[in-house]
Structure formats: structure tokens, C-alpha cells
Amino acid sequence: MFWPSRLFCIQLTVLVATVHGSSNDECDCYLTNGTNSAYYSRHSFYDYRNLGDYAGVPSPVQNASRKAGVTSDYFNSDTWDDSWSIQDWSNRGKGVSLSGDATVLMINSPNNVYIEKNDDKDAASDTFLTMRTMRLPGFQSAAEFESVSTYHYVSVRMLARATGSAGACMAIFTYLGGEELAAVQEADIEIMTRDPKNRVQYTNQPSFTEDGDDIPKATRNGTLPKGVEWDDWVVHRLDWTPKRSTWYANGQEVASIEFQTPKDPAQIILNAWSDGGSWSGNMSLNGAAYMHIQWIDIVYNVTKDNEEKRGFDGRRLESDAEQDGGLVRRDDSKGACKVVCSIDEADKAGETNILPKSAASHMLDMRYWTRMIVFGIMLLAYI
């Protein structure tokens, strides 16, 4: 006799426990999972999986003095230019010298950043973005692009793999340069193609001194989880917060470092390179290595670029508060973070979900609740 009322209560309980899909417009902030969980104010997703109109593998530039253009119109589009900038610098020092302990001239070229058709068996995407580095007679051709904006604390993930010849470094990292080595602020994910395929280097730079001495506390040589190797498609993740940097692979924590955690706003940089030095190693002539990227997903705080950033309510975006070295949710009274979303609880990359206990969550839509309560009262009165 009473099952309709119980069913009504069950319906409400299920609603409260459900995580609902959302768009960025609905979210006031984003909460990450893991041991270094934090709130972030913005979300950006960069998807390279369905760009078949731009796919094509360019021939390598054979001349060290030749300047190359971008490889497709995609890299001239606002979609790209509003977020990323492809680099063309070299490691030439003063005179004929090379920077650091490099033994090979390295030249970054836009020719090495391109969209490629995914020919994997049972491919999960139509295309991916490729970064290529190749050893040619007289020089190493490399690839690098960097964010247009700077970020003040970030959780960045990419679905990527590395493949090819030994002697390359494939990396994604935050970076703020300094006139002296000790002033550099940087948190790295680095895949060294001469290393075992289950090993990845995680570092809060610098990891060495001006005298060349190692700083062991700054770096970890991590092991990928569950038999995964870096030439598999892996979700590599870096969470940079005020107290520490934490790294994950396929959702599993693989390293965490508090020592010399970066403190100031920094760019995000991705590169594929080799210079014959002690870090990357030396690539054999005509060897090549590649980093393939299906997507990049970022939640982040204060940004700075050519235009002043504003909060969701149109006010100037203020720095997220810090408490005991951690990011904290903004005060709801300011209208800054009533709806908390997650990219970790979403079913698909690039999507967000509203967390069930968010203040003023769209999941708890008042119009829906009003209809349900009225219906429930009528149902109870009837029975």
C-alpha cells in the first residue's frame, strides 16, 4: 500500500547521488580528485581527434637555415592561435657555441608540429597531433609549442604516447624562466626515449646546480602503473598546487614532490627534442622520435595574457585564496563558486560534471524539485 511513497523517496535519493553532466558555462569552479585535490576557476579542452581535413605528414626540413611555415591551416586558426604558439628558436649560443652541454645544433621548426591520421588498429580517434624530432646531417630538427597565457596553479592532462628512436626527450611542463638557473620555476613530465618504456621522469626544476651537481630531492624516476608503457596511449597528468606537484598516469599517482614547488605564474610548454647532451642523449643519424597527442585537458587558476581576464560574474578575476598552502573554494557569498564541477567524474574527456553537493547545483533545479514535491504531496494524499 505504501510503495508509491517509498518509490518517491527513492527517486529523490537517486537524484541527490547522481553526478550530472554540465557545460563550462554552468560551472563556477572545478574540483580535482586525488591526493593533491584542489579547486580551480577555469577549464579548457583541446581536442585533436577529429581534424581529418588538416591531416598530412610533411617531409622533414633538410636545411638548418631554412625557415618553415606551419603545416596546415589549423595552425593559423583562431582555435590554435588563441591558446598556443609554435616555436622556432635554436640552441645556438654566442659565436659557434651551443647552449649547455649540447653537442648537436638543435632547431625547433613549425614543420615538426602537424595533424596525423590515426592508423592504429581499432583506433579510438580519427587523428592526433604529432610532435617530431629528427636527427639530420649537421643538426637536430625539433618541435615545441607553448601556451599564450600563463597559469597560476594548474591540473593539466594529456592523452599521449611516445615512439621512435632513442636519444629524445618528450615533455609537457610548466615553465617560468630566470636569469640564473636557481631562479627557474618548472614542473616536468619527461619521457626519455633511451629509458625503459615503463619509466618517466617527474621533476620540480632545477634538478642540478650551476656546478653540475644533481639535486636528488627535486626529481623522481617514476614507474608507470599496471604494465603500461609510454608508447601506449597514456593519460599523463600534472597537478601543480602551492605546496607540491603531483603526477598521475591513467589516474594512478606515480610521484609527488614538495621540494622547490613553483610559486609564480608560468606557461605550459610541450616539446620533442634532442641536442646530443647528457640529458637527452644522442640520436643516431636519420633517427626520429614522435609524441602523439589526442587531447589536452586543463583546469587552472589565475591567467595572464594580452587581454585582462575576468571572472564568471564579469569582475576582475582574483587569485584563489590560499590556506595552509592549499587552494580553497572561494566564498559563496561573493557568488564565485556556487556550482562545483569535475572533469575527473565525467564519462568522456573534455566533459564536465556538476558534483552532487555543490551549492546551487543545477542538478538541484528548483523547478524540477517543485514539480516533484507537488506530485509527491498529491500522491501521498491519494493513497
Automatic annotation (TrEMBL):
Residues 52-304 form the GH16 domain. The keyword Acetylation does not apply. It comes from the Eukaryota. The keyword rRNA processing does not apply. GO terms for molecular function: hydrolase activity, hydrolyzing O-glycosyl compounds. Keywords: Signal. GO terms for biological process: carbohydrate metabolic process. Residues 1-21 form the signal peptide. This is GH16 domain-containing protein. It comes from Fusarium odoratissimum (strain NRRL 54006). The lineage of its organism: Eukaryota, Fungi, Dikarya, Ascomycota, Pezizomycotina.
